[in-house]
Amino acid sequence: MNIYDISKQAGVSIATVSRVINGNTNVSQKTKDKVLAVINECGYTPNAFARGLGLNTMNTVGILCPDSSDPYLAKSIYYLEQMLRQNGYDVLLCCTGYELSEKQNYLNLLLSKRVDGVILVGPNFIEVQDAKNEYIRLAAKKVPIILLNGTLSGENIYCALCDDFQATYDATNCLIKNGITDILYLYNSNSYSNKQKLDGYVAALADQGIPYRKEFVSYLTGDLQCVKEHLISLSRTGLDFKAIITSDDHLAVGAIKYAKSQNLSIPSDLSIIGYNNSIYAECCDPELTSIDNRLETICKNCISTLMGVFSKEPVPLKTIFPAELVKRETTSF
Amino acid sequence: MNIYDISKQAGVSIATVSRVINGNTNVSQKTKDKVLAVINECGYTPNAFARGLGLNTMNTVGILCPDSSDPYLAKSIYYLEQMLRQNGYDVLLCCTGYELSEKQNYLNLLLSKRVDGVILVGPNFIEVQDAKNEYIRLAAKKVPIILLNGTLSGENIYCALCDDFQATYDATNCLIKNGITDILYLYNSNSYSNKQKLDGYVAALADQGIPYRKEFVSYLTGDLQCVKEHLISLSRTGLDFKAIITSDDHLAVGAIKYAKSQNLSIPSDLSIIGYNNSIYAECCDPELTSIDNRLETICKNCISTLMGVFSKEPVPLKTIFPAELVKRETTSF
Questions:
Q1: Contact at CB, B90 and A113, closer than 8 angstroms
Q2: Cis peptide before A46, with omega less than 30 degrees from 0?
Q3: Residue A110: CB partners within 8 Å, gap ≥ 6?
Q4: Confidence band (pLDDT; 50, 70, 90) for B49?
Q5: Are strands A60-65 and A117-121 parallel, antiparallel or unpaired?
Q6: Side by side, which strands form the sheet with A324-326?
Q7: CB–CB of B204/B173 below 8 Å?
Q8: A226 at B interface, C-beta within 8 A
Q9: What burial class does residue A86 get, using C-beta atoms within 10 Å of its C-beta: 0-12 exposed, 13-18 middle, 19+ buried?
Q10: B308 and chain A: CB distance < 8 Å anywhere?
Q11: Measuring CA to CA, which residue among A61, A112, A60, A94 is closest to residue B24?
């Protein structure tokens, strides 16, 4: 007997059952009585410890993310926490950093806390080398694992993501159709998702008969200053580029800082397209054209999938949403 | 017997005990044996449920924040989560929104989960009307409550904060000493902290013999566009201002957008000072002069206070840090 069965039997939502259990006053007396009657009837003890011991659930979901202060990941956590709470689940948050060994440690830590499920937030959990993802498949033997913007095949693993390949393919195509063919590509991680983005860029060039030049692609980490300096040194080598697509808005803001330092006018001298449509995109000047990967929609999908798994309903293994190019001031189209 | 006693008896840090319990491999065999010997000797069962039942601690700290996607709050959560983890504590995260009733509900929810302590993140938890803060004092009868950038007197309530009054006092003074006396002040919340900031602005004007004009002070919520439009309509009323101090970087970025829309040059026509020294400050153009309220230091202080309370050491009720004005491109000094 768990919160789902109670909600079903009482004919109210899980959120309502949760509210009653937690003594929230936003419930009518009638509904409260109905829920409490079912709870009493079935002997359900709404106490975290008793629940944990007797019914093997803490009604807790673990969220793992590399860095909760990254604006994109912070927004994900915000959506997920709200949606989980609405469904009567608590959130145990772990910030893992970007090291594989730490991710493994934290995932095992969450399992030892007997969470009901785990959400891995952001593409950085999936390594291109598949053997390195085995610890996730092992964890999925114990609890359902949801990947937010990541993809991995395996039993009890569910993915909700944006079509990153198509997104950068379309963005690159858009630039080419506007007569811009010298396009830099900057990325800051080797995750599966970032590989897809890079592949989209490469495929768009190929389909338009534009040769791929590896000096046009840079792997870059570090702050805005680093990005700016990297671009200055690239341009000093005589490389001529008219546009920059990045795997992340932060890199794109660095590109704007570069353009400003060289007195380049945006977008006439240099077009810039970011990725994530995060707060960076509206803060900077000129405001950034950015690929929106539908974070809120993806988060909703993650939660409805997880709730479906908990209540043993059939759920999709993988759901892919299309991205959207949000046009602002760093492109002329 | 809890994790502290074990750490004491084994002569290792709490983090090490936690690592051993959680099967983390970053511990030498010798240390591991020593910790396990103490654990076995005292009959400590390192299982979340058993711990909860038998020892009345889940080694979990609740973090309440209004909105985990706000960059300042996101950064706080990031620091706190890491520091708590290092001390062997899990984080139960709740995002409450800004409504008082919801804050009350979530705090009670955390208490029902038997957390060992609660950290209230951000100044928005403390209402100027003291009666509205009574629910926090009630909660403090059960577990220690730590206020991060808030202040409230009461038993078992501990505060770590920045001297917001002095910060805006100094910033306002700085402008006045540079010959700028027509200074707008924009704020976006009625928290105690924001009242301190406003008082600092008012006091600096008074001390320099500049009359306070209430049309120079605006309470503003909403996005960048709203801030921009509000300033445009203010200037259309004929109000002449040469500087803007804001209670938050987001408002300051809105002020930059306003200046740009009116072809005002920054800082010669308009100086702007933000608050928080968040990522907004570096993203925007020109980059924002902002008051840094030492978030990492404050977070560290919160955690060391909480750990002190847990281990029954004497700890300060209130710790106040000075802010620092980080000068960038929106001021001429």
A1: yes
A2: no
A3: A62, A64, A92, A94, A118
A4: very low
A5: parallel
A6: A217-219, A183-187, A243-246, A271-275, A289-292, A324-326
A7: yes
A8: no
A9: middle
A10: no
A11: A112
Q: Could you tell me the two tokens for A27?
A: 């419930």
Contact A94 B71 (CB under 8 A): no
- Tell the burial category of A215 from Cβ atoms under 10 Å away from its Cβ (0-12, 13-18, 19+): exposed
Average pLDDT over residues B200-224: 95
Residues of B in contact with A112 (CB under 8 A): 22-23, 48
Whether residue B56 has pLDDT greater than 70: no
DSSP lists the bridge partners of residue A63 as: A93, A119
- SS3 assignment, position A330: coil
Check CB contact under 8 Å for A109 and B75: no
The distance between the two most distant Cα atoms of chain A, rounded to a whole number of Å, is: 78
C-alpha torsion sign, points A295, A296, A301, A303: positive
User: Does residue A308 sit at the B interface (CB-CB below 8 Å)?
Assistant: no
Instruction: Report pLDDT for A48.
Output: 42
Interface of A with B in 98-157 (CB under 8 A): 105, 108-109, 112-114
- Give the chain B residue whose CA is nearest to the CA of A285: B285
B223: nearest CA partner in chain A: A282
- Could you tell me whether strands A324-326 and B318-321 are parallel, antiparallel, or unpaired per DSSP bridges? unpaired
Predicted pLDDT of residue B129: 87
**What are B181-198's pLDDT values in tens digits?**
999 999 998 888 889 999
In the predicted model, is pLDDT for residue B109 greater than 90? no
* Cβ atoms within 10 Å, residue A41: 12
- Using an 8 Å CB-CB cutoff, list chain B residues near A52: 48-49, 52
Instruction: Report pLDDT for A249.
Output: 96
- For B3-39, the pLDDT digits (tens) are 777 888 888 887 787 777 665 667 888 888 888 778 7
User: Which residue in this structure is represented by tokens 């980059």?
Assistant: B287
**Which value does ipTM take for this structure?**
0.71
Q: What Rg do the C-alpha atoms of chain A give, in angstroms?
A: 23
CB A120 within 8 A of CB A146: yes
Cα A220 from Cα A226, distance rounded (Å): 8
The token pair at B75 is 């950064």
- Domains of chain B and CATH, by start: 3-55 (1.10.260.40), 60-162+295-322 (3.40.50.2300), 164-293 (3.40.50.2300)
Instruction: Read off the DSSP letter of residue A131.
Output: G
Highest mean pLDDT among A152-156, B99-103, B112-116: A152-156
Portion of chain A with pLDDT greater than 70, in percent: 92
A190 C-beta neighbours (distance < 10 Å), count: 15
Tell me which residue of A158, A134, A149 sits closest to A66, measured CA to CA. Answer: A149
Neighbours of A66 (CB within 10 A): 20
Asked if B78 and A95 come within 8 Å (Cβ–Cβ), the reply is: yes
Helix (H) or strand (E) holding B219: strand B217-219
What pLDDT band is residue A44 in, cutting at 50, 70 and 90? low
